[in-house]
Amino acid sequence: MGYRMLDLGLISQSLPPILILATRKSLSDLKRKRQIQIMKIKDTKTKVILIFAAAAAALLTGGCAEMGSGNTTSLLSAAGFRVRTPQTPQQQQIYAALPPYQVHRATVKGRTFYVYKDEKAGVAYIGREQEYQRYHELAVQQQIAQNYYMAAEMDRAAAFGWYGAWGPRAFWW
């Protein structure tokens, strides 16, 4: 209220000019301090939101990695890959050298094999060219089915108007 009175010139008649300048300076300092406090609060909120977002992303990607591993093993089994546990020291050495959770191509004595190392279960899925081709077909079919499912879900959400919270904005918004 004192600041408005300064603008109107009501106090300037009774106060010396030094006090008027001091009052204006202290008001601008107060505004500046308040702006700094607001910026610190916003900065803190931003940091907290970023931490929560990073934690959520880590949880979601960890869950996806687990889901993919189980999905791959079921597809390999459905394609005809055989599950083997390394028994001999030579098999254990070969198993240890394989990259985990990847289908790896290997040639032994002129024969081509495809091997998938499931490190968590401690087993290897072994198949030939025919099983690998079947695995590839199953993976493509599953991807197509997932794409159709996602498209159907998006169509259903759009039909109910959930794509923009409550639908497109009206003129008065």
Compile the SSE list and pairings.
Layout: H1 2-8, H2 17-79, E1 82-84, H3 89-97, E2 103-108, E3 111-118, E4 123-127, H4 129-159
Antiparallel strand pairs: 1-4, 2-3, 3-4
Helix pairs in contact: 2-4
Word description of this protein:
- The protein is α+β, with helices and mostly antiparallel strands.
- Helices cover 64% and strands 13% of the residues.
- It is built from 4 helices and 4 strands.
- It has a 4-stranded antiparallel sheet with strand order 1-4-3-2.
Q: What order do the SSEs take from the amino end to the carboxyl end, as H and E?
A: HHEHEEEH
Percent range for β-strand residues: 5-15%
Runs in which pLDDT lies below 50 for 5 or more consecutive residues are 1-8, 62-67
Write down the overall mean pLDDT: 75
Assembly state of the chains shown: single chain
> What is the structural class?
alpha+beta
Rg result: 34 Å
Main sheet makeup = 4 strands, antiparallel
By DSSP (H or I, 4+ residues per run), the number of helices equals 4
Strand order of the largest sheet: 1-4-3-2
